[in-house]
Amino acid sequence: MPDRETADAGGLSRATVRTAVGLFFGAVAAWMVISGLLARRWPWQLYGDQASQSDVLKLALGVVAAGGAAIALVVNYRRQQHLERDDVGKRDQIRLFTERFGAAAAQLGGDRPAVRLAGVYAMAALADEWSTRRQQCVDVLCGYLRLPYTGEPPLGHPELVVEQRHYAGGTIQRTETTTHQTGEIQVRQAIVDTIRQHLRANAEQSWSDLTFDFTGATLVNASFSGATFSGERTWFDGAKFSGDYTLFTGVAFSGDRTWFAGATFSSGRTWFDGATFSSEDTVFEGAEFFGEDTMFDGAVFSSEQTWFAGARFSGDSTSFAGAEFVGDNAWFDDARFSGKHTSFDGATFSGEFESFRDSAFTDVDDALHEARISPQEIRWGPVPSRSAWPPDSSA
């Protein structure tokens, strides 16, 4: 639709220019022809009592003006037709979008997983075709992930429970739905995978500049690896990540806000290795990582503010090996590292300020020897430090 509008508008502009040029040369031609008919001479040869050059010019201009008026009427008529046709086209396009949007949304709300999957791909196709309504379509997909999730139904659990009651006056049938929906994991994974494909560098239709709101979303076996979030805001606040893995490997966050505040990561593997955070604010404040393996190896934090304050790392292994904190401020205040192994091996803090005040490390050796964190900033865990760094009894 926008391409056709541009083409039609360009056609009218070119027609207007051609008309103006035609009128100019028409005036010159009329001047010469009328001079020849009245004075039988070229305009520049007129003299004496014969028709003067100015009279011939006035007559020529009058003829051309009349022709120009007729042409103007035709051009205005064409322009009016174009506007009317364009209004009709816009109304048709809006009606078509509304119909397709409603159909895709209805499929997303269907009872059967196959219908909901079809709704995912229908909504994505709609977003690709209508760039001006793309955010609206993506908001619906993200909104589905924010819906309550009760997990897959137990084996053999029916989707519908039908109860019949018999009365003297006849039979009344009542149908009750269960709280479970089959195929929910597949539907949610399809949404995440569809979004990820549109956020990769080779995507035919990129959604990277959009806003993504996953606040409170339930994400099972979610992979955003290789994605780029460059929209104004990317929200994962309070999101729940579960399953075998949660992957943000190599993801680039470059919008104004990147927030994982209060998110919970219970997947077996939670990997942010190689991710880059260059938003104005990167917030993991109060996030909980209690999966088996949490990895931020090689991640680069160049945001003005990077917050891990109050975060909880209780899985077997937590690693920030080789991570770079180059933004203005990095805050780990009141963070808790209670897993078996915590590594900041090779991590660098080159920003203006970093703080581990009131942080607690169970694996003190890792905290001191690998991260080179000042012992005065750490509240000591049950593992004693090496003799080179005696614990601070006042902490």
Helix content: 25-40%
Computed over alpha carbons, the radius of gyration is 36 Å
Instruction: Report the total helices.
Output: 6
Mean pLDDT: 78
> Per the principal axes of the C-alpha atoms, what is the gross shape?
flat
As for the number of domains, it is 2
Number of extended strands: 27
Low-confidence stretches: 1-7, 46-51, 378-395
The separation of the N and C termini measures 67 Å
Question: Which band does the percent of strand residues land in?
Answer: 15-25%
Largest sheet: 12 strands, parallel
Which structural class do the helices and strands define?
A: alpha/beta
Break the fold down into its secondary structure elements and pairings:
Layout: H1 2-39, H2 53-108, H3 113-129, H4 134-145, E1 160-167, E2 170-177, H5 184-199, E3 212-213, E4 218-223, E5 228-229, E6 233-235, E7 240-247, E8 252-253, E9 257-259, E10 264-265, E11 269-271, E12 276-277, E13 281-283, E14 288-289, E15 293-295, E16 300-301, E17 305-307, E18 312-313, E19 317-319, E20 324-325, E21 329-331, E22 336-337, E23 341-343, E24 348-349, E25 353-355, E26 359-361, H6 364-370, E27 378-380
Parallel strand pairs: 3-6, 4-7, 5-8, 6-9, 7-10, 7-11, 8-12, 9-13, 10-14, 11-15, 12-16, 13-17, 14-18, 15-19, 16-20, 17-21, 18-22, 19-23, 20-24, 21-25, 22-26, 26-27
Antiparallel strand pairs: 1-2
Helix pairs in contact: 1-2, 2-3, 3-4, 3-5
